[in-house]
Amino acid sequence: MSIGVRPMRDGQEEAVAAMIRQLPKDLGLSTVPKITGQNLRDWKGLGHVTVAEDSGLLLGACLWALTVSSWRGAKGIYVSDVYVMSHARGRKVGEKLLRGVAKEAEKLGARFIKLEVDVSNVGAQRFYARNGFKHKAEEQYFVMEQDQFSEFVKGGAQ
Prior knowledge:
With about 160 residues, the protein is α+β, with helices and mostly antiparallel strands. It is built from 5 helices and 5 strands. It has helices at about 15-25, 35-40, 95-105, 120-130, 145-155, and strands at about 5, 50-55, 55-70, 75-85, 110-115.
């Protein structure tokens, strides 16, 4: 048995969404991602989903999209989610998954990876550091949530 990495196939959207929804349970968080299989079908063309599998059994998934950086003068990717099933951890599934994503993205011209890690997810922070990612203390994360976005579009909440 060997771990393979490939793009998600049609029909696997529900299984991948269920994996991503498992993440907060593994971390002891109360918030559950709202992602559904339908979201993944609707987002086709906006981003990519890469999966890791062993003998047809899904072990993990990575959701990512192309981005650009004017500061770097380069195309890159933004990784929004990486999840490895708890029973598959310790088998380098996450590393193989990210390496597979990087190889796929490089073919599309990407030269860097950007992602976020929950401050309480120390295990993920160690994983990314072991794999060459650096914490960028000079950058801050900002978000405009859905309610504020709607108000902003309408011209309010300034």
